[in-house]
Design a protein that fits this description.
Oligomer: single chain
Number of domains: 1
CATH architecture: 2-Layer Sandwich
Strand content: 25-35%
Largest sheet: 4 strands, antiparallel
Structural class: alpha+beta
Low-confidence stretches: none
Mean pLDDT: 95
């Protein structure tokens, strides 16, 4: 069964193109190490909630846009092996390729699909 890594981050709105450039440089590494798909989504309709919401989850400011991203893997074993390789890969080193956002406020996790519909 497939495995999904999900990410929510706050990106300075002024850094949109820097974020896209960063994704174009590093997302192919996920594919190289076995991911089947990587999707980067720029917040467009992200409403404020009464109790919690995406913006609060990552402490986004008025000058930031919330990003939602996911990586699809064929299975958890492939993902776990890829994470190990990425931690050792110099292309993934933030000193070599700095993130255009505050990585300390990123939330992420791995998810096992339990239901899927559609193509």
């Amino acid at each position: 069964m497939s495995y999904i890594d999900g990410f929510v981050i706050a990106v300075p709105t002024a850094n949109k193109q820097k974020f896209i450039d960063h994704a174009r440089l590093l997302d192919p590494v996920f594919i190289e190490f076995g991911a089947t798909r990587v999707v980067e989504c720029w917040g467009d309709d992200v409403p404020a909630g009464k109790v919690t919401d995406f913006a609060r989850a990552v402490q986004a400011t008025a000058e930031e846009t919330v990003m939602f991203s996911w990586v699809e893997w064929p299975d958890k074993a492939t993902r776990d092996a890829a994470v190990k390789k990425m931690m050792e890969d110099p292309r993934m080193d933030p000193k070599e390729n700095p993130m255009p956002f505050d990585g300390k406020r990123m939330i992420f996790g791995g998810f096992m699909p339990v239901f899927e519909i559609g193509s």
